[in-house]
Amino acid sequence: MKKTLSVGVAAVLLLTTIASIAHFSATSEAQDVALQPEKSNITTKVVTYKDGDTECEGFMAWDSAQSGKRPVVLIVHDWMGRGEFDEAKARDLAGLGYLAFSIDVYGKDVRPANAGEAGKAAGSWKGNIAGLRTRLQAGMKTALADKNADSSKVSAMGFCFGGTCVLELARSGAAVNGVISFHGGLGTETPEDASNIKGKVLVLHGAADPFANMEEVVALNKEMSDAKVNYEIDLYGHAVHSFTNKAAGNDPKRGAAYDAQADARSWKRMQDFFNEIFE
To answer: Residues 168, 136: contact at Cβ < 8 Å?
Structure first.
């Protein structure tokens, strides 16, 4: 179960992880995310698949001008469910040369219309981690069945609720080269399952996130360290929850807000991570 370390240990962790992102230039820090120019050859499709009796609706994107198999990047949506945000990320990743597939955790008939519905949908999975892991693995299996998928090179990334999901996918022992959590929930009821993790773990997190606070960061650090996982935790100073999502607005006092600097830094770190695990 989660344990809280001393404030002193948390401070050391904070200084250490902030140092890990200090290499980014002042110019790139101040800019929005530098995405690939939009390409006319980015092809997309909706993919219907099943987890048991539940029908899910994933979204796949790839560069049709690219030949041969390519690394697979799974995307897991935030608590609002599959939609425009993760689809945009899939297109961006396709432009970088990956086969991107956005997994539908909720099922095709569940698309929250507001925060209340989103909280209910996401919360229903927190008490069903075994089911969540199975749902994620069903999406992964679907992506790897595509003719363009290189099944030896697989990663998963998720945002907010999706960040929680990809950590659970890793804890399930899934055969992934690595996972990335963007401002995700970090806690788990089964930290011992970190011993199942096969790939590397990258956590990109707002240092001022009130929904997954420093206590969770410190607990995750201990969990990963105890299990001898190859991991990295990057903290973005003053960033709160949802720092990659412009729809979150610009008021950090609300606890969730877009942060252009943290968005740019985290996207660059993601690309470096993929280059590392897919070499």
So the answer is: yes
105-142: pLDDT as tens digits: 999 999 999 999 999 999 999 889 999 999 999 999 99
Spatial distance between the Cα atoms of 260 and 243, rounded to a whole number of angstroms: 8
- Specify the pLDDT at position 126: 87
Average pLDDT over residues 52-70: 96
Domains with residue ranges and CATH for the chain: 42-277 (3.40.50.1820)
Give the pLDDT of residue 279: 87
Is residue 31's pLDDT more than 60? Answer: no
Measured CA to CA in angstroms, residue 116 lies from 106, 111, 120, 183, 251 at distances of 15, 12, 6, 20, 20
Whose structure tokens read 């370390």? 5
Three-state SS string across 133-177, please?
A: HHHHHHHHHHHHCCCCEEEEEEEEEEECHHHHHHHHHHHCCCCCC
Measure Cα distances from 179 to 8, 200, 266 in Å: 28, 7, 13
pTM confidence score? 0.86
User: In the prediction, which pLDDT does 26 show?
Assistant: 35
